[in-house]
Amino acid sequence: MIKTSSQKRQSLSEVKKEHFRALDSEWQSYLNSKTHEADRAYVQKVPCPVCGGNQFNELFAKQGFHFIRCFDCTHVFINPQLKSDILAEHFRTSLAWNIWANRVLNHPEQMSFDKAKYEKFIELIDPYFQSMNEKHVLDIGCSSGIFLRLMEERGWKVTGLELSAQAADLARERFGLSVFNQSLVNFESTQKFDLITFWASLEYHQDLKTVLGKAASLLKENGIILALISGSSHSFAMRVLREKCAGFIFNRVQCFNPDSLNQLFESFGLQNIYQTSLIPELDPVLRYLEGGDPYETSFDSKLLAGEDREKFESIILKNMMGYKFLSLFKRQA
């Protein structure tokens, strides 16, 4: 039978747009209708989650939420931010994250992209564990479980934590993985892990000291914590686009840069052994500089091309100004 247009699978970009529309609606629900600021009933002021400092510089406000930088450690975060119970409820009930878990992550194009992405990173971390026989990995915010499945295929014993019930169900049903629908703070295990991973999930945690302290307590001696950070406050795109940058969103309460992330991990005796910058994210900046919508892909910027573009992107990554960055931290014996 020939499928009608309504029966055809939506493109990945269409589903993602639906996700962001839902997220924008949820964002608006936390604003005071008169002031258009985050409603005081929903938010709380916090000290710097990295160093505990109380001296800040406001960078900008975006749709009622304020993004500030700590004077002492340069960490960028939302302040005031949603109260912890409200943010937790948001993640449990969010339509936007339901769309992401059930339709974005389940989309063939996204699954293929995620598989290729994780395989590349696995090649990077494999050499650190080659001499081990039985290896255990804990993935914090494991989503639909593609990374854990790839690790299981390589002989690892895998465990995942995922706050989205839909994504956790997907990981269990599709791959038969050991995935718990709970937070790291509430997770109890007698098993210590050789590798603990935060694939763009650490940014959504509020109490960083408690979260990282718990992660460190579950790490073996000489174990490694991997943190992929999305939306680096040091990135070229976020510095230029500021409030127009899609990386600044109300539920991603932390905006790390390499220095602030290193300071946080070092406070728990975890040494940085590898760090690299990823994704120049130059196109949105060029569209913006030409007066266009940074994220309207149909608008083709004429600025920079060929070798000039390659050189500029190389400079961005060399100076740790990519949109994302990957870090490995090791517990010394």
Automatic annotation (TrEMBL):
One Pfam family linked to the record: Methyltransf_23
InterPro entries: SAM-dependent_MTases_sf
CDD domains: AdoMet_MTases
Top-rank taxon: Bacteria
PANTHER family cross-referenced by the UniProt entry: METHYLTRANSFERASE TYPE 11, TRANS-ACONITATE 2-METHYLTRANSFERASE-RELATED
Name the record gives this protein: Uncharacterized protein
